[in-house]
């Protein structure tokens, strides 16, 4: 695939607008990693030190001198036509004989583009890194003939439509799940049970990072730390370690156990609760976590949903100690937490309903990840020239 310097594609184009102190200006910024533009707050001329802004025009290329090295590159679409940026965001017109804006938008999202732009940065690092226009225009990128650019844009666009639908399904499932949990609790809050009467609760032991091992030695126990309980609400066993000489009273995870975050710098993470998969049975957990061991293992799924509910999570966050730094939820307080406790049949029905909706969300999430992986691989193979869309694609596309 033929490569051209951006000198051949882009021409500096400035619509410079002097700022008036009492005039308001709708401004834009650029996401890193080729994710496009975003709207920033409206700014009055008197609120900025800049004497002028650049006005954006649909179809232009724009980038951030400060963050170009991490992919802050974008094409202006209709949503941002007429918005303003500072002089830190140079703007360019595109030679339509050699490139189309939608193809350049794909180049903006290509990691290889970021790497080539990064080679032109100046400064000592951090906020002093800058890629100036003359350096950016020296960057060489692949520019096939316009018909091939159109095919690439069209094919990737199909994947983007599928990805958008999957993201919509994922969001809808997650929103429905939150509403269902809340509504279910409101319908069944006439009978409650104290968590401490249903389960044994306690935080795990402390150990030093120096005592962790990647491979076990005789007598070692596999341990789960805070990194194994990410915000995705599924325990991640990929980075579990092994520790020896834990106290003999250490309670291990088993069937019927739940795991909760006890302390965290992010207060909204305190109280996040996780079901324990069979692969984690026999693991110890850290002092940053609380083990909830149901006296009747079959109750674990129902208690999981009641603790995961927005109402329970809000109560835990509000009752966590500490105003700065690490917050902490006390085991004693958690034992006194009351949750709905209807009949066994109603609890079973509630779990079945919520698990089924969560299954939809999980599958939509996996679909999103798969589509993203396919898009990344396909885009790289097309832009790098490893793969080429045959001319026959145009005939097939016209029949769809």
Describe this structure in words.
- With 400 residues, the protein is of the alpha+beta class.
- It folds into 3 domains: 3-141, Adenine-n6-DNA-methyltransferase TaqI, Chain A, domain 2 (Alpha-Beta Complex), CATH 3.90.220.20; 144-187 and 347-400, Orthogonal Bundle (Helix Hairpins); 192-341, DNA methylase specificity domains (Adenine-n6-DNA-methyltransferase TaqI, Chain A, domain 2, Alpha-Beta Complex).
- It has helices at 101-108, 111-118, 133-136, 146-187, 195-198, 300-308, 310-319, 331-335, 344-383, 392-399; strands at residues 3-5, 10-12, 16-18, 24-30, 37-44, 52-55, 61-63, 73-75, 84-85, 91-94, 140-142, 192-194, 199-203, 221-224, 241-243, 257-261, 263-264, 273-275, 284-285, 289-294, 327-328, 338-340.
- A hairpin with a 6-residue loop joins strand 4 and strand 5 (37-44).
- Helix 4 packs antiparallel against helix 9 (344-383).
- The protein is elongated, with a radius of gyration of 27 Å.
- Mean pLDDT is 93; it is low at 123-127.
Mean pLDDT: 93
Tell me the helix content. Answer: 25-40%
Cα-based radius of gyration, to the nearest Å: 27 Å
Domain count = 3
The CATH homologous superfamily of the largest domain is termed DNA methylase specificity domains
Task: Please state the second-level CATH architecture of the largest domain.
Answer: Alpha-Beta Complex
How is this structure best summarized?
The protein is of the alpha+beta class and 400 residues long.
């Amino acid at each position: 695939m033929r490569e051209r310097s951006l000198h051949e594609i882009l021409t500096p184009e400035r619509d410079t607008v002097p700022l008036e102190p009492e005039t308001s200006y709708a401004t834009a910024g650029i996401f890193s990693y080729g994710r496009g533009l975003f709207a920033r707050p409206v700014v009055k001329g008197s609120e900025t030190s800049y004497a002028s802004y650049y006005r954006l025009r649909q179809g232009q290329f724009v980038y951030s001198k400060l963050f170009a090295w991490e992919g802050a590159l974008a094409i202006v679409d209709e949503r941002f036509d007429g918005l303003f940026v500072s002089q830190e965001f140079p703007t360019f017109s595109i030679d339509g004989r050699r490139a189309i804006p939608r193809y350049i938008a794909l180049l903006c999202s290509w990691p290889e583009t970021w790497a080539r732009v990064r080679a032109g940065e100046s400064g000592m690092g951090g906020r002093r890194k800058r890629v100036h226009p003359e350096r950016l225009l020296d960057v060489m990128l692949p520019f096939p003939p316009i018909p091939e650019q159109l095919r690439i844009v069209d094919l990737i666009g199909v994947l983007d439509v599928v990805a958008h639908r999957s993201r919509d399904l994922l969001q809808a499932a997650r929103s429905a799940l939150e509403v269902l949990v809340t509504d279910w609790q409101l319908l069944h809050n006439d009978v409650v049970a104290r968590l401490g009467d249903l389960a044994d609760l306690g935080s795990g032991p402390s150990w030093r990072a120096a005592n962790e091992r990647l491979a076990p030695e005789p007598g070692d126990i596999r341990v789960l730390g805070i990194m194994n309980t990410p915000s995705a609400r599924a325990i991640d066993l990929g980075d579990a370690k092994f520790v020896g000489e834990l106290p003999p009273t250490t309670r291990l995870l088993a069937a019927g156990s739940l795991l909760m975050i006890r302390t965290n710098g992010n207060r909204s993470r305190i109280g996040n609760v996780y079901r324990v998969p069979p692969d984690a049975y026999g693991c110890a957990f850290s002092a940053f976590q609380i083990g909830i061991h149901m006296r009747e293992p079959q109750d674990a799924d129902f208690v999981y949903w009641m603790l995961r509910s927005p109402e329970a999570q809000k109560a835990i966050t509000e009752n966590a100690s500490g105003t700065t730094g690490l917050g902490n939820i006390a085991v004693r307080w958690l034992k006194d937490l009351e949750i709905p406790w209807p009949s066994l049949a109603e609890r079973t029905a509630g779990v079945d309903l919520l698990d089924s909706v969560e299954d939809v969300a999980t599958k939509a999430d996996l679909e999103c990840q798969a589509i993203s992986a396919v898009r990344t691989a396909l885009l790289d193979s097309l832009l790098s020239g490893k793969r080429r869309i045959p001319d026959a694609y145009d005939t097939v596309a016209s029949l769809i």
